[in-house]
Amino acid sequence: MQLLFVRPEIKAPSGLPMRSILTSYLISKNFEKHESSLHTSRIATILCSDSKQSMYCQMLCALLQRNEVVCVGSVFGSTLVQAIRFFEDYWKELCSNIRRGQLSAWISDTGCINSLSMILNKPNPELADLIEDICNAKSWEGIIKKLWPGTKCIDAIGTGSMAQYIPMLEFYCGGLPLVSKYYASSEGLLGINLKPLSKPCDTCYTLVPNMAYFEFLPVHENNEEERSKKEVIEVVDLVNVKLGQCYELVVTTFIGLYRYKVGDILKVTGYHNNAPQFQFVRRKDAFLSIDSEKTAEDELAEGILQAKLFVGQFQLQLVDYTSAVDISLIPGHCILFWELKMEGSSKSPELSPSIIEESCYIVEQSLNFVYRASRMGNLIGPLEIRMVKHGTFDALMDFSVSKGSSVSQYKTPRCIKLEEALKKLNSRVVGRYFSQQLPGYKTLKWKLNKSVMHARKINSFGD
Predict the structure, then answer these.
(1) Whose CA is closest to 63, among 116, 113, 14, 141?
(2) If exposure means fewest CB atoms within 10 Å of the residue's CB, which of 49, 135, 208, 228 is most exposed?
């Protein structure tokens, strides 16, 4: 069961057709001849341009063939989480289709209708009852293993920005290993995971030397690589990278990219023969910025992780999140849009303001020294969490898909700057909460005092 989706083809101003590499592969004769028979999804359901109809029909195909499934997955872990949320909303209707042996009337795509008629051709009340019993359970923990009992692993990319979905996937998969097979990007397939059964946090990729010409820009703490615009940064070849060092990946590819910065920061963790192995650390660009303070994605992700652990004590699950910056007031402040649910339920929970306000504080504690110093100096306002109603991030995905994004390659943007998307999020806000404490006050005060003492010590020696 591999959930795959195509993206509509568009034309360049010159008239040349443009489409994603995944779409090109899925519509190719090679996929139809060699791979389509390995999937539960009929090829017509994959090629359906309506993402909702495609998702529904692919889920129905997988349920009808539940005993044949040995692997469940998607390109990204986020897509699989979205599929489970979709299933939460539609499992009763799917069971009704299986019970009656008839497809829902709102499915209008001819390809989907024709392909489903081959396997949904008679009533199957026994299967419908079995799925209903599974879904009516008090908790959906291990739901994937229960629905598809022959599943051996979950196949999806779970590193980088996808790492935040690992706890939710672990909850749903019932102890199945999460396999992240490869390191790929728009620039090409760059590396493979030679130990696919390793834990997601331990996943490392071996770069495949003949996929591109790889070069590396050393990256040091405190943005040392940018400390002087006049300084020339030495580019390191593949054979000269050092164990434990972080690098920004640069590629020259067969299709014509020349010394192209991919934007990923990788850390050398070992070697396979002479090929270096890397762990994905973070994306390079800081994406939340107020005045001169910039917050990197990995810092925010760490804060979110700590806050998720905190709200988890109250049987609350963070479905998804994104961020934005509000500079309409002085001082400006960071905003997090959160969608929460109760464990074992898809409904929005009753919220205690003190819990969410404490979550604001926990997130701020994980942000960098400059941010916390700016908060103490009132240069940045308290962090705000805006709670949104159930289904908001599904609606955000639908909005992105309507603008040309692909469902299979969609990742919730971690920073929203598009005004129209912000309006959609704000229209679904059900509560606003602010941090009530200054982050890291004692720690920060100690650091500042230590700096002052150090300065006095230097001055006392007349230096």
Answers:
(1) 116
(2) 228
Burial class (CB in 10 A: 0-12, 13-18, 19+), 7: buried
Whole-model pTM above 0.90? no
Task: Name the residue type at position 1.
Answer: M
CB neighbour class for 438 (10 Å; exposed up to 12, middle 13-18, buried from 19): middle
Whether 144 has a pLDDT exceeding 60, the answer reads: yes
- In tens, the pLDDT along 396-423 reads 888 887 877 767 667 788 888 888 888 8
- Residue 313 CB burial class (10 angstroms; 0-12, 13-18, ≥19): exposed
Name the nearest CA neighbour of 377 among 445, 327, 455, 450: 445
User: Are 203 and 269 in contact, with CB atoms under 8 Å apart?
Assistant: no
φ/ψ region of 146 (left if φ > 0, alpha if ψ in -120 to 50, else beta) reads alpha
- Mean pLDDT score, 1-15: 83
Name residue 85's amino acid. Answer: R
SS3 for 334?
strand
Q: What's the mean per-residue pLDDT of the chain?
A: 83
Question: In which order are the strands placed within the sheet that holds 213-219?
Answer: 182-185, 188-192, 205-207, 275-283, 260-272, 246-252, 213-219, 236-237
Would you call 219 helix, strand, or coil by DSSP? strand
Which residues are within 8 A (CB) of 438 and not within 5 positions of it... i.e. 6 or more apart?
Answer: 372, 375, 376
Tokens describing residue 235:
């580019």
Output the CA torsion sign for 437, 438, 440, 443. Answer: negative
**Structure tokens that stand for 67 in this block:** 């005993």
| CA–CA separation, 366 and 361 (whole Å) | 9
* Strand order across the 316-326 sheet: 316-326, 333-342, 384-388, 429-434
**Exposure class string for 383-401: b at 16+ Cβ within 10 A, else e:** bbbbbbebbbbbebbbebb
Cβ atoms within 10 A of the Cβ of 455, count? 10
